[in-house]
Amino acid sequence: MFDTLIYQNRRKALRKKIGNGLILLLGNNEAPANYPDNTYKFRQDSSFVYFFGHSHPGYAGIIDADNGEDYFFGDDVDMDDIIWMGPQPSIKELAAQVGVEKSFAYDKLKETVSKAIAQRRKIHFLPPYRHDNMLLLEDLTGIRASLTRKHASLELIKAIVSLRSVKEPCEIAEIDKACNVGYEMHTTAMRLCKPGVSEQYIAGVLDGIASSYGRMVSFATILTQNGQTLHNHDHSHILEKGRLMLTDAGAELMSSYCSDHTRTIPVGGKFTSRQLDIYNIVLACHDKALELARPGITYKSVHLEVCKVLAQGLKDLGLMKGNVEDAVNAGAHALFLPHGLGHMMGLDVHDMEDLGQCHVGYDDEIQPSAQFGLASLRMGRRLQEGFVITDEPGCYFIPALIDKWRAEKQHTDFLNFEAIEKYKDFGGIRLEDDILITSNGSRFTGNKHIPITPEEVENIMNE
Predict the structure, then answer these.
(1) pTM over the 0.85 mark
(2) CB distance 318 to 416 below 8 Å
(3) What pLDDT score does 364 carry?
């Protein structure tokens, strides 16, 4: 947790943006894995953490935008709880830790909301993503559970996005720490990546590192020789010399702040010449994004410039042809890069996406595209100092997609399918870092940069 004043100032800023009504922020509850007492690892709602600090189940908070008061709801533990869990702070003590003077038992939440509804006051709540909170909102507001997302407060969504997008110094420090754990995870993967080792073993070691330094991994680890599948969670293969291992993994600290990095390395510790050709193109894309990212620039424009670097590199190899700018405008490059350049980072690995990607990565100025590939760009809006975003270009050879486009004769003016056919056994490469937008540019997050040049990667793999 941060200093009490941090949470007080955040709630004050939110009240000012909303102006009137009752702001209802629900925490999360335990979720049974296979029977009630065996639960999944608990994860608190990120907006609740942001404004009320506490990462335990069974809490709710209200910020009254009319009278300037805050309320914290939860139940004190009983003797059975103490026997199994030990002594716990009271709800009053927990509330005081985040600067809230008024605390109540959880069953008072409905009474408070019902009173506000009877007074015809507006109730602001966020779109729920857990079904138990959908049912709770139905009980509190009378809105059917299936319709609660539709009736979420757009004012509240936009206000919270505006506050959480720009990271405070205390948040940046936590993200740096999370990226330091990411360094340990990825350099360990590089040292373990040897022929005959199972993907599952390395993935399990990485998950253990994340847990040993913090709460858990920030998302399900992607570690695979089949990097052409963008989110490949299958770890069932044994590493084979001459193939590439793509590792997309990050850590989540006890503070809930995250890291997210990707490296692609050669099994056996030495890139082939063909692998180096593609790797260096992706590395040039990665470095181009870091060069261009700065306040005032849209990340959509950075994405498109990176796509030109990719297309030019592939043209130089004979895989693409024609005018590079025309090819990118037409979306021909998306055969190799069917995803966007990056996304917001913070309390969530895809920060605030529960609030709606159209509100997080886009705004009234920059709207999502419908074009294949570009439609998957999660972050397109104009950058501001204090944003933390990912820089993650890639180049993938997806056999099914290649076959489909070739059969449909898509973008034949820009794609050399005869040459592309020879790369269908290649796999995929992605390189990802988390970057902070500074006053005049950007910087990597974390104190150590994970090896990324071919020389750095081969050196650490062959130590």
Answers:
(1) yes
(2) yes
(3) 94
